Amino acid sequence: MNALIRNLRIVLVLSLIGSGYMMLSTFICSIDGLLEKMRGPLIEAYPEMKVSYEIMMATPRICYILESLLYALSIIGVILMFRLKRSGWHCYTLAQLLLLLVPVLFIGRTAFGIGDFMMTILFSTFYFTTLKNIERARTIAETNSPQDSDTKETQE
């Protein structure tokens, strides 16, 4: 069981880093006027990013705000899973699925990323099965614990 918890926590740290970075990034993009101020220096430094920058500018600010809030929900889910709470999986998975949907609603079908979808399914499935296996291992450990057998012997 310790190996399961260790592996879970390693992947949770990766999710925490990814969601934290994206929450910060989308929050920065949601600040009114900031992208406009960055346009000149950004395009000069990275001319190949001009198309990406134009897409970012065309994206409504509410999209970035919603994404930032959903990444915060994802972080809450990760923290709950770190405490081995199944409700964390629900928060994390809901946030990740909505994060797939929000850009599609505001930008269009071209914003749907099959890679993002695959990673969401992969991580959510890993978390679900790992948490389920940890619960199963705890149940087995509790039913086979020596304290229970000592208590039964003293009661007889």
Question: What would you say this structure looks like, in words?
Answer:
- With 156 residues, the chain is mostly helical.
- It has one domain (2-29, 60-141).
- Helix content is 85%, strand content 0%.
- It has seven helices and no strands.
- The protein has helices at residues 2-30, 34-45, 50-58, 61-82, 86-106, 114-143, 146-155.
- The longest helix has 30 residues, at 114-143.
- The two termini are 32 Å apart.
- The model has no long low-confidence stretch (mean pLDDT 88).
Q: Could you tell me the strand content as a percent range? A: under 5%
Estimated structural class:
mainly alpha
What is the first-to-last residue Cα distance? 32 Å
Please tally the β strands and state the result: 0
Please identify the oligomeric state. single chain
Which spans have pLDDT < 50 for at least 5 consecutive residues?
none
What order do the SSEs take from the amino end to the carboxyl end, as H and E?
HHHHHHH
Average predicted confidence as pLDDT: 88
Q: Work out the helix count.
A: 7
Q: Into how many domains do the coordinates divide?
A: 1
Helix share, percent: over 70%
The largest sheet, given as strand count, sense and whether it forms a barrel, is: none
Rounded to an integer in angstroms, the radius of gyration calculated over CA atoms is 22 Å
Any idea what the shape is?
Answer: elongated
SSE blueprint and pairings:
Elements: H1 2-30, H2 34-45, H3 50-58, H4 61-82, H5 86-106, H6 114-143, H7 146-155
Helix pairs in contact: 1-4, 1-6, 2-3, 4-5, 5-6
